[in-house]
Amino acid sequence: MSKDNLPIPNSLSLTSRTFSPKSPPPSSFSPSDWMVYFNSKFVILAATLFPGVGCYACIAYTYLFQFDKVVNFASDHCNGTMSYIPPVSYSIGVWKPQKFFWLSVLMLHVPPRIIYVELCNKFFLRGPNSSNPDNYYFHILLSIHRFLMHLEIWALVGVSIFDIEFNFLIHAIFFGFWLASFNFNMLFSVILQYQSGINETDSKYYTLFKIKRLMFIVGCPISLTASASYVYYLKSCKDLAYVTFSITEYTTVGMNSLFHLVSYIDADKMSLDIAVVPSVPGKIKSKMCAV
Predict the structure, then answer these.
(1) 192-205 residue pLDDT tens
(2) Which residues sit opposite 272 in a β-bridge?
(3) How far apart are the first and last CA of the chain?
(4) How far apart are CA 101 and CA 58, in angstroms?
(5) Do 185 and 252 touch, CB atoms closer than 8 A?
(6) What is residue 195's three-state secondary structure?
(7) Which of 151, 225, 159 is nearest to 188 (CA)?
(8) Which residues touch 84 (CB under 8 Å, ≥6 apart)?
(9) What is the pLDDT of residues 248-271, one digit of tens each?
(10) For a Cys-Cys bond, which of 57, 112, 172, 199 suits 46, CB 3.0-4.6 Å?
(11) DSSP conformational letter for 37
């Protein structure tokens, strides 16, 4: 009898059964059980209105209940320039209880703002030109825009945590990042909406595009005036330059909220579903026992 025809002993048969692959148990995973559905309208409102409303609420509280601080306010530079329009940084970052209220608003604002970034990306990707392989620069701009949207979030966090009393230079750097990222985000949002081709699918989107374009044309010079007037104030110590900075800063806060709020026009067609998927064991490799 040849070796090929030898019977396999029971011990080897047991060993073979031990090493034989076993199919994994059927998974009981159901996508609906692990899905979290976000209301896009609430996300957009929380991501866009919270900082604007919270900031203006702090300013209103200052003028209504702490007017003595406004009357006696003096700048920390240029031998204490007097002004009845103190910068936003004092109302949200120095004076209490406004500071604690603002930090609470910021805590509620950041999570939906992160989700809002993904909603914006989803909006641009709905355009017919976004899937065009020759439109590679569109996806490059989209990636840069996504990065700057996140930078705008964390720059605002930095401005709020590192206030003027903590360190003026660090506070000013974060404010510069926030201001620059906001202006570039307005610009990229207008360009991406135009290049995506979504304006051609519905007249509503073209109206949205015109609103964004107008807000960029108006908002960009105002926000740049805020930074330029403050730099000029530090060099010249002119009272008018300091007042100009405060007024344009107040206006920029509102422009920031309004520009992002226009996405609410398309809220009915935007949604974000997050699934927590349990880990699925991989395939068990077949093991063979050589005789």
Answers:
(1) 999 999 998 888 88
(2) 38
(3) 17
(4) 8
(5) no
(6) helix
(7) 151
(8) 70, 71, 73
(9) 999 999 999 999 988 877 665 666
(10) 112
(11) E
